[in-house]
Amino acid sequence: MILKIDMTSDIPIYQQIRNQIVFGVAKGNIKAGDSLPTVRQLANDIGVNPMTVNKAYALLKEEGIILIDRRHGAKISNLGMKGNAFDPDFDQRAELLIAEARMKGASRQDVKMHILNLIDSVYE
Amino acid sequence: MILKIDMTSDIPIYQQIRNQIVFGVAKGNIKAGDSLPTVRQLANDIGVNPMTVNKAYALLKEEGIILIDRRHGAKISNLGMKGNAFDPDFDQRAELLIAEARMKGASRQDVKMHILNLIDSVYE
DNA sequence: TGTTTGTATTATAATAAATGATACAAAAGG
DNA sequence: CCTTTTGTATCATTTATTATAATACAAACA
Question: Which residues of chain B (90-119) touch nucleic strand C at CB < 7 A?
Fold first, then answer.
């Protein structure tokens, strides 16, 4: 499994791991029933401590995206992710993105077109 | 100026201040030429240390949203925010939002409608 | 000069992130 | 049963970030 981890990013490593797995599953690149690499393996691949990967996996487990057993490691659940899609957190993050785009000069139409394309690319 | 700061949030206080000012300007609630409260004043209003507010203002200054002079404090610039609206950061954040919504069961159409409404509400 | 503003500086404390090392428990397979 | 492999727990340490307090300085006016 290829995860791109930016060691210089503001985003903590464990969050990056989590985010990329969420994205990979949503996009269909990783499917329900697929196994994820073991904690030790992924840690080795990325070059981080196993506990860092473990933190990502624990998050994913808590969110419902993965199921874990001790012998076989983590695999993708077919139940999706817990929670409401459109909660206040979603709205706040989306609104901030939109606001920043507007402040950087994007028109309403630009933002709409751009985001609709992103939605289509995630759902394709 | 009323800013809502959630002291329990994961998001650092200075980021919340910054975010709300960006949003307020993008939404038109705060206009180019408007003055922001002084660092000391806003810190007092919110109940945080002035250096925390100063960090937010320094960010906003760096981003181009505010202009600062030592006598009169911060005011909103009319130049908007530096940077490209649709940079890789925008796309990554948007894609993650979309991916999470999908994982929580939202259909493509649901996501489109919801976000288009948010865009309209920001731009109104 | 006095006042007000942002900014700089120093130091401290708390929290978060990341790590290393080790050990334990669970679950299978031989 | 023993061995292996897996996640998990635990402890300790280090580093980075956030937030603070206090103080002082510089800038820009009235």
Answer: none
Statement: the CB of A119 is under 7 Å from strand C? no
- What pLDDT is recorded for position A69? 86
Q: Cβ of B61: how many Cβ atoms within 10 Å?
A: 15
Are A112 and A58 in the same domain?
A: no
| Inside any domain, residue B8 | no
Q: What is the CATH number of the domain that holds B34?
A: 1.10.10.10
Residues of B in contact with A104 (CB under 8 A): 80-85
DSSP letter for A93, please: H
**pLDDT tens-digit readout, A67-91:** 998 888 899 999 899 999 999 999 9
* Length of chain B as a residue count: 124
Q: What pLDDT score does A7 carry?
A: 86
Asked if A101 lies within 8 A of B85 by C-beta distance, the reply is yes
- What ipTM goes with this model? 0.91
C-alpha span between A1 and A39 (Å, rounded): 12
Interchain CB contact of B101 with A (< 8 Å) = yes
Q: Considering only CA atoms, which of B63, B96, B95, B66 is closest in space to residue B82?
A: B63
